[in-house]
Amino acid sequence: MNTSINTIALSAAALALAASGASAAIAFDQNVTPDVIFGDGNTNGSYTTDRANNVELGFRGKLRFNALNQPENTFNSNGDGTYTFNPGNASPGFGFAPNNPITPEWNFEWSINSDLDGTSGRNLADLTYEISFDNDPSAATNFTTFDPIHAFNAAAGGVQWDHSLGDNSTGNGDGVEVSNGSPNAALYDSRINALNVAQNSWNPLFFSGAGGPFENFDPNQPGVYTFQLAAFDVAGEIARTSIDIIVVPAPSALALFAGAGCLITRRRRRN
Q1: Alpha-carbon distance 106 to 96, whole Å?
Q2: Quick one: DSSP state of residue 95?
Q3: Distance CA 98, CA 114 (A)
Q4: E strands within 67-141?
Q5: Which residue, among 131, 124, 126, has the nearest Cα to 146 in the 3D structure?
Q6: pTM value?
Q7: Domain coordinates of the chain in residue numbers?
Q8: Distance between CA atoms of 94 and 102, rounded to whole angstroms?
């Protein structure tokens, strides 16, 4: 979504990455259920998913801005949970942050479905979640982790999420949102207690405010950024998915991609 959340408040307790957890086999280049429900004109596909315990979690990268400064449905998936993009900024004048030098050309998009086959009656509020951002482009990782469904921005007076929410019958682009500009905790709470699908599309720019995970982000820096999404019930972790955004200069993409692949191997051995 094109809403800045630079002022997001991340509680100290939410800053630690979950240590481990079992999940089903990760599947690549998948559709999410029921469809992509945020915005208009966003197509399904290219998600890296975990479908386990009647939960579906999906993550993907997307080319948010092309050379003409327009969004498009290009995901640059490598078919193995990695997504490759060029370094640098989107073209000057891009919509939600004109001429901001922090904005890369790529977004990261996630999807949660807490009742995949529609039989459990489990809504979004019945589980807890962790979304993790790695802001270190090197072989090391530096994660910021929080619950994208239950964590609120208390400093701004309440709910600030503009997630698109729906159920298994929601059509493409038909999700409903709680306005970021008008926090309404009661409305948001009622929706996550009634619905089982949440999705959003985010850019590192949105988290680049003081104290944010991408406060020092440099879109010109080649490297690898890992993004993870996990779901938990009262017994522990029940699903987890993970992707790597590889930022590689186009002229030497093949050589640097090989190096980035080494970084990915090292990262995944540590997770």
Answers
A1: 13
A2: T
A3: 36
A4: 82-85, 106-113, 128-134
A5: 131
A6: 0.84
A7: 12-270
A8: 12
Alpha helices (runs of H) in the chain, residue ranges in sequence order: 185-192, 253-270
d(CA 217, CA 117): 39
Residues pairing with 226 in the sheet: 244
Query: Where does the pLDDT of residue 91 fall: very low under 50, low under 70, confident under 90, or very high at 90 and above?
Result: low
Helix or strand holding residue 165 (H, E)? strand 164-166
3-state helix, strand, coil in the chain (%, to 5): 15, 30, 55
The Cα–Cα gap between 114 and 112 comes to 6
Position 159: which residue type?
Answer: V
Q: What is the dihedral of CA 136, 225, 242, 38, to 10 degrees?
A: 120
- Per-residue pLDDT, 132: 96
Distance CA(124)–CA(269), nearest Å, equals: 30
Cα 223 from chain centroid?
18
Instruction: Give buried/exposed letters for 12-24 (b at 16+ CB in 10 A, else e).
Output: eeeeebbeeeebe
**Which range, of 104-108, 164-168, 264-268, averages the lowest pLDDT?**
264-268
Q: What is the pLDDT of residues 130-176, one digit of tens each?
A: 999 999 999 899 999 999 998 765 444 455 688 999 999 999 999 99
Token couple for 259: 């190096």
Measure CA 28 to chain center: 16
